[in-house]
Design goal:
31% of the residues lie in helices and 22% in strands. By secondary structure, it is α/β, with parallel strands linked by helices.
Length: 398
Amino acid sequence: MKYLILGAGPTGLTLGCALLNKGIKDFLILEEEEEAGGLCRSAEVDGAPFDTGGGHFLDVKRKRVDEFLFRYLPSDEWNEYERDSKIYIHNTYIGSPIEANIWQLSRDEQVKYLKSIAIAGCNLGEAKPEKFTDWIYWKLGKRIAENYMLPYNSKMFGENLDQLGTYWLEKLPDVSFDETLLSCLEQKAYGRQPAHAVFLYPKKYGYGEVWKRMASSLGERLICGCKVNKLDLDKKCVNDKYEAENIICTIPWTSIEEISGIGEEIIGDVRREVKYTSIITEYHPENLDTTAHWIYYPDPGLDYHRILVRHNFCEGSAGYWTETNADRYKGDAGSVSFRNTYAYPLNTVNKPRVMERLLKAAAAKGCFGLGRWGEWQHYNSDVVVERALDFADKITDK
């Protein structure tokens, strides 16, 4: 075939549907699971949708992405929400992001945070540190670092935070002392809006519905229950069975047991340096007295790092679900829970160098990494859809 796509998550499904919409039918998608959708799949739990891969929402900022997905789940089948996210800290709930909502804390706490921000290294002109933990202190100040960022990231990504680089945090804005002071004086948030400030969620379904419909439109060009065990880039062949002019990898490279054709040194570096974390999502049937859509919990005494308040964004539902790093999970064996082995790609120190070499070598053999796992980047679903649409345009314009 002309195109062989590995993985039927949002990236692979978008690419396949984009090709089909262009009249290109000479392709196939291989998916390990029995159902497409990847991390964005949904199941029915307690009579309502449960997004098994954690909280996923459609941002309204990328109009091209929204219009593409509306082909499969029309716009009138979505509800629009203004983001309401909270942080539980100092025994109270405040808005997120923390730097814009310190004014919601007690007066004494506000003063402590303001003093800490004023002497953050980046505000004093100090040299930027190289280690992750030092960088957080330098960028955000001691109190935000110790009370929120460091414990939360430890819960989400693991205790050894210095295995992470700082390159992925470069877009994080400096915490402005002036804006934080103004917010405390005027009792309102200052600063830029966070991601998903306005988002869409299906009215009658979980987020997995749009991907399920996309998968259905592909017909026999999607093969589920087919794990990719072997990738031979010299022969452009997968599992000694499927051959293609172009192979597009949207699955985790480390999940492929045997990769040949790009050198043992590169593959060895990938096995050693390219890391990920796993999460468990767990359902809780009780409703919470909150308007929040999701809540972050930096408290190390709790195993989960955030909760998604289902009854506040999923019509006709009850309860909430927790998201927990699998290494920390202490849930009830009888609870309704789902394990996601590949949940978050880790931005380790050497990842950029290793992935650059891998992707360059693979592309030279006609194999292209795309999306969260193909590129090993922490992309949201709307981002991977956009990247897949752009990639489809690129390869079909040749």
